[in-house]
Amino acid sequence: MREMRWHARAGQGAKTASQLYATAALRAGKSVQAFPEYGPERRGAPLRAFTRVDEVPIRRHDAITHPDVVVVLEPSLLHEVDVTDGLAADGLVLLNGDTVPAELSAEHVVCVPASDLAERHGSKFANLIMVGALAAAVGEPGVDDVADAAVELLGKKVSVESVRSAVEEGYACLS
């Protein structure tokens, strides 16, 4: 079983990203769970979301305390939250940013400039870029499954082309 924890501020799309990754894995034939954990329910408050993916049905319904992967959508949280708490010894931190900050120097960190890429394309889809990058980093699900799931979840709200483009750009960063 692969377990993932997402860190962001409320309103940045961590819950959506967690659900999107789970939906893409489900499309690829996996068993999945995705759920958020809210602190104060206000825009900008730190929040965590979680995703589990496995080949067999998932019977656990507890919190994820030892994730294999941590995805950080908001780098400023590194000064407020220990994003590596419980991270597996061989775990991966996927960070929205350009460089590995000193507080993560002892960890296996892969940086993806998702906010910069989204801004360059005039979108707010840093979360979709990070989902694409996550799929590439862990080797599943395929980019088409992720893009199709993104369109399924968001295609009625925003341009299908921009949703697909964001996922594909994130995937290309790490493939």
Assess the beta-strand content as a share of residues.
15-25%
Global Rg: 15 Å
How confident is the prediction overall: mean pLDDT? 92
| End-to-end distance | 22 Å
Uncertain segments of ≥5 residues (pLDDT<50)? none
Query: What is the helical fraction, as a range of percent?
Result: 25-40%
Based on Cα principal axes, name the global outline. globular
Number of helices: 5
Assembly level: single chain
Q: Which class do the helix and strand fractions yield?
A: alpha/beta
Run of helices and strands: EHEEEEEHHHH
Widest sheet, order of strands = 2-3-1-4-5-6
Largest sheet: 6 strands, mixed
How many DSSP E strands? 6
3D architecture notes:
By secondary structure, the protein is α/β, with parallel strands linked by helices. The chain is 35% helix and 22% strand. The protein is built from five helices and six strands. The chain has helices at residues 14-27, 114-120, 126-138, 143-154, 160-174; strands at residues 2-9, 31-38, 46-54, 69-72, 92-96, 108-112. A six-stranded mixed β-sheet has the order 2-3-1-4-5-6. Strand 2 and strand 3 (46-54) form a beta hairpin. Helix 3 (126-138) runs antiparallel to helix 4. The longest helix has 15 residues, at 160-174.
Entry summary:
This protein has 175 residues and is an alpha/beta fold.
List keywords for this structure.
single chain; 175 residues; alpha/beta; six-stranded mixed beta sheet; 5 helices; 6 strands; 35% helix
